[in-house]
Every structure is written in structure tokens, then in C-alpha cells.
């Protein structure tokens, strides 16, 4: 492999990491199609690389959110029991499926994500009434609103079910699965969106690690590809969070939902 | 102003987890970046070993002071993969320091599952 290829991978990682962070989707949603469609990487290697990028971005974000106490630590640790089980089975399943099947499954996932993005835009404020009699009571300081938000979590078994599925998708296709967990934690359990997003992101690193060694053991982790891509995505995620604070709007969501739709078609019929 | 002992200890687990994650991300990124820089300076093309090295081989290469770019990248990736393991273990120790027995058990259950996956995969 030529050393010059590293620049393409770092650049691709920066772009996909920036887009993922800007749109709140994580790095994997754009990184895997980039590696497969632009770099012609086999699907299993692309997923393994994406899993590593997901661990890096989740860990970097969680380090800040845990310190600020936006993460509901005890809820996150409890839900990790479900996401880890899901991810291990997802990783084992992925390694008996062909690249073509995984590519088509990823295309269906992208289709779901593009619809979820539009749905989320219409429900961007989430539910605002905190549930008082639930489990895992917590509070955090909402710096934008300048107030302390107290809440508790209802219907935990339902969110555990969603976490199990999200973990399974993570292990199978190398994405974080936050696009499914966050609405469930907000709409089913009544968590404030900020706490739900931070807690979901906190879990993603452990979930991804649960399948990472399965891909490593099957020889799907290529350090010459994964290292530059992961570093690129990590840089891009920091950039994306900064841009996200300035750019918000329905038009951006519509544009990228359409982009994901096109990528989905390309992944299905490649 | 002096904080009471309980106020100091209440969020010990959050601080420990935050530092574990920071060390994991920046430590692994440094190893990978070092590998990439050395690869950049080594002329020609880079070749992978015929199969992925065992984690013990990577650790041995690192401790022996070898600056093999591919091994450094492998070391960075393995350190990154192990960071969530360390985070869960840190949480268990932190919960124990906070005397929260229930969540010590929850953290250890998660750690046991991760460890089982690791051992099963590397066999």
C-alpha cells in the first residue's frame, strides 16, 4: 500500500467524521460507504474500521459529557448489559454473512437513518415534561438554558429492548445506533434530549468494543487503513461539533437525508 | 471553601471514567499518529504481516523499543479497543469507592461479557 493513500484515508475520515458529528449520526454512517464505494474496501474490513472510529469518537465525547454530568451513568451502565449482548451476536452474525448481504443490510439501515433524520427534525424539541416517579433519578446543568434539569427514567425494560436491537445493529454493521436509542430514551422513557444523547453516546464505545475483537480475530482489521481513517474521523468529529453550533437548519437535514438515500441505493446495487 | 468529605467523594466515578477515556483516546491516537509519521518517512510501500499479530506480540514489540510503523499502528488500535474495557473496570472500582454495590455488580457483569468475547475471539 502506498504511503500517499494515507492522505486520502485521513481526508475521507475528516469529511465523514465532520458530517457525522454535524448531523448527530456518528462517524460510521458515512465512513463505511466511503471505504466501500471510494476505496473499494471489502465490507467486513470497512465495518471493522468503522467500529474503531466509533470507539474513538464515542470515548472522546463521553470524556467531556461524563465530567459535565450530562451522562446518566447508572442508566448507561445498565443498558450496556443489553447493548453488549446485542453487539456480540451482531459481530458473530456479521462474520458468517457475505459482504454482499452486509452491504444490502447497510443500505436498508441508511434508508432507515435518512427517514429517522427527517422524523427527528420534526420532533427536534422532544418531550419536555420530566417524569418524576421513574428510576435512575438524575440532574444536570443545561448550560444553554442556564438551569438545572432534574428527571427520572420510565419504562426501562422497553429501552433495554431497543438497546439490545441497537447493539445488534452496531455489531452487525459498525454504526453507533444512537439514532434509534436517543428517540426511545426521550419518547419512551421521558429523558431530556441532551441527557439521552450523552448517555447513548457514552454506551456506544463499550457496545462497539464488544464486537471489535471478533472482527480483529477474523483478520478484518487492517492497521494501514484503520489508523489514518480513525485519526481522520476523530479530527472530523471535533470539527463537526464546532460547525454544528453555528449551522442548524431544515435545509441541511433535507440535503443530507437525500445524500444518504442516494448512498443507500449505491450500496444496495453496487 | 472546604468541601465535605461526602461532596468530594460523590462524583469520584465520573472523574475517573473521564480520565480513563481521555488517556485511552489520546494514547491510542498518539501511537497511531507516530506509526503514520514513521510510515511517511520510510520510503517505498508498506506491507502487512501475513496475519494479524497477537496482542502479546504487539506489546513485546512496543516494550522492546521497536519503531516498526505497522506494529505502532496495531498498538494504537489495540489500545483503543481496550479503552472501553478499562472504562468499565474503572467504573466498577469507582462505584466500589462510592460504596454502590449494585452498580459494582452491573459494571462487573458488563466487564465479564466483554472479557468473554475477547478470550473467545482470540482463542
The main sheet of chain B comes to: none
Shape of chain A: globular
Kindly name the structural category of chain A. mainly alpha
Mean model confidence by pLDDT of chain B: 86
Distance between the termini of chain B: 54 Å
Radius of gyration of chain A: 18 Å
Note the total helix count of chain B: 5
Uncertain runs of chain B are 1-8
Level of helix content of chain B? over 70%
The total count of strands of chain B amounts to 0
Mean pLDDT of chain A comes to 89
Please report the two chains with the greatest interface, counting residues with C-beta closer than 8 angstroms to the partner's C-beta: A-B, 48 and 51 residues
Percent in strands of chain A: 5-15%
Q: So what's the oligomer here?
A: heterodimer
Number of helices of chain A: 10
Please tell me about this protein's structure.
The complex is a heterodimer of chains A (270) and B (123). In chain A, 73% of the residues lie in helices and 6% in strands. With 270 residues, chain A is mainly alpha-helical. Chain A has a two-stranded antiparallel sheet with strand order 1-2. The radius of gyration of chain A is 18 Å and the shape is globular. Chain B has 123 residues and is mainly alpha-helical. Chain B is built from five helices and no strands. In chain B, helix 3 packs across helix 4. Chains A and B meet through helix 3, helix 4, helix 8 and helix 9 of A and helix 2, helix 4 and helix 5 of B.
Describe the SSE topology.
The complex is a heterodimer of chains A (270) and B (123).
Chain A: H1 5-23, H2 28-38, H3 43-67, H4 73-94, H5 99-122, E1 135-142, E2 147-153, H6 156-173, H7 178-188, H8 193-217, H9 223-244, H10 250-268
Antiparallel strand pairs in A: 1-2
Chain B: H1 5-9, H2 12-41, H3 55-63, H4 69-97, H5 101-122
Helix pairs in contact in B: 2-4, 3-4, 4-5
Amino acid at each position: 500500500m502506498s504511503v500517499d493513500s494515507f492522505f486520502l484515508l485521513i481526508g475521507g475520515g475528516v469529511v465523514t467524521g465532520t458530517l457525522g458529528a454535524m448531523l448527530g449520526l456518528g462517524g460510521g454512517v458515512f465512513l463505511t460507504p466511503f471505504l466501500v464505494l471510494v476505496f473499494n474496501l471489502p465490507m467486513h474490513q470497512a465495518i471493522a474500521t468503522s467500529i474503531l472510529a466509533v470507539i474513538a469518537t464515542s470515548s472522546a465525547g463521553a470524556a467531556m459529557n461524563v465530567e459535565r454530568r450530562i451522562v446518566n451513568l447508572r442508566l448507561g451502565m445498565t443498558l450496556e448489559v443489553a447493548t453488549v449482548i446485542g453487539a456480540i451476536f451482531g459481530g458473530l452474525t456479521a462474520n458468517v454473512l457475505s459482504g454482499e448481504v452486509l452491504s444490502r443490510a447497510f443500505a436498508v439501515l441508511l434508508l432507515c437513518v435518512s427517514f429517522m433524520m427527517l422524523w427527528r427534525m420534526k420532533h427536534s424539541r422532544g418531550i419536555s415534561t420530566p417524569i418524576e416517579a421513574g428510576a435512575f433519578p438524575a440532574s444536570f446543568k443545561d448550560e444553554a438554558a442556564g438551569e438545572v434539569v432534574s428527571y427520572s427514567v420510565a419504562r426501562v425494560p422497553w429501552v433495554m429492548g431497543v438497546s439490545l436491537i441497537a447493539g445488534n445493529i452496531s455489531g452487525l454493521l459498525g454504526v453507533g445506533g444512537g439514532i434509534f436509542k436517543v428517540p426511545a430514551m426521550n419518547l419512551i422513557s421521558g429523558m431530556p434530549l441532551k441527557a439521552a444523547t450523552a448517555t447513548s453516546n457514552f454506551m456506544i464505545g463499550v457496545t462497539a468494543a464488544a464486537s471489535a475483537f471478533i472482527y480483529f480475530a477474523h483478520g478484518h482489521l487492517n492497521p494501514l487503513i484503520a489508523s489514518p481513517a480513525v485519526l481522520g474521523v476523530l479530527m472530523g468529529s471535533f470539527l463537526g461539533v464546532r460547525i454544528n453550533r453555528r449551522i442548524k437548519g431544515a435545509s441541511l437535514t433535507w440535503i443530507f437525508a437525500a445524500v444518504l438515500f442516494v448512498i443507500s441505493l449505491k450500496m444496495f446495487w453496487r | 471553601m472546604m468541601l465535605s468529605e461526602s461532596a468530594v467523594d460523590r462524583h469520584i466515578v465520573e472523574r475517573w471514567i473521564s480520565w480513563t477515556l481521555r488517556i485511552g483516546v489520546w494514547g491510542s491516537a498518539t501511537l497511531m499518529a507516530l506509526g503514520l509519521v514513521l510510515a511517511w518517512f520510510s520510503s517505498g510501500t508498506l506491507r502487512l504481516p501475513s496475519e494479524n499479530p497477537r496482542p502479546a506480540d504487539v506489546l513485546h514489540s512496543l516494550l522492546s523499543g521497536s519503531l516498526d510503523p505497522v506494529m505502532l499502528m496495531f498498538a494504537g488500535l489495540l489500545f483503543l479497543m481496550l479503552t472501553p474495557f478499562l472504562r468499565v473496570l474503572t467504573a466498577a472500582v469507582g462505584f466500589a469507592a462510592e460504596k454502590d454495590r449494585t452498580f459494582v455488580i452491573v459494571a462487573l457483569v458488563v466487564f465479564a461479557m466483554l472479557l468473554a468475547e475477547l478470550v473467545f475471539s482470540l482463542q
